[in-house]
Amino acid sequence: GALKDDDRAVSVNNISVNENSPFAVFTVSGTGNQPVTLGLQNDADGATNDAALGTDTGTQIQYFNGSEWVNYSSGTVDLINGSLLVRVAVNDDSTFEGPETFQLAVTPTGGALSTGTATINDDGTGSIYPDNNTGNTDPGALKDDDRAVSVNNISVNCLLYTSPSPRD
User: Fold this and answer.
1) pTM value?
2) 33 CA to centre of own chain
């Protein structure tokens, strides 16, 4: 029952997700049946706006176990055939915040932490990850764009034109 060291590397992809997407879906890659732990965090980059975990995102991590999405609470999850789909809910709002980031943190048992960064966009860009079992995006889905629009005022010079009467 002792914890065994596992220094095999894992990787997590970076994704760009539209705020209208129900989920942000990451792909974790490593060695078949490699046990990993999962967590959410903000990055340490002061140049990016952090997503508010629990407000801009959900807090429940789910992983696809080969047949269904399962809630992750703690402990380890095995990479199925060296890969694992992991998702977190994205919460849409009507306020334009610009890009916001959060990370999925993945650690193999006794190994080094790897992170994948999700950038949530509310400017009409980013992918839509529907509720499916493939992790594939929906390129035709309606995307959120919270940027303000403006309409300018104009001044029109109105010249009154009188056409000749038919009798003239």
Assistant:
1) 0.86
2) 26
How far apart, in whole angstroms, are the C-alpha atoms of residue 135 and residue 129?
7
The tens digit of pLDDT for each residue in 38-81 reads 999 999 888 889 999 999 999 999 999 999 999 999 999 999 99
Q: How far apart are CA 37 and CA 76, in angstroms?
A: 5
Q: Which helix (H) or strand (E) covers residue 79, if one does?
A: none
Residue type, 67: S
Q: What is the DSSP string of 133-168?
A: SS----TTSPPPB-----------PPPP--PPPTT-
Q: Coil, helix or strand for 15?
A: strand
Residue 96 half-sphere exposure toward CB, CA atoms < 13 A: 8
Torsion of CA 119, 120, 125, 131, to 10 degrees: 110
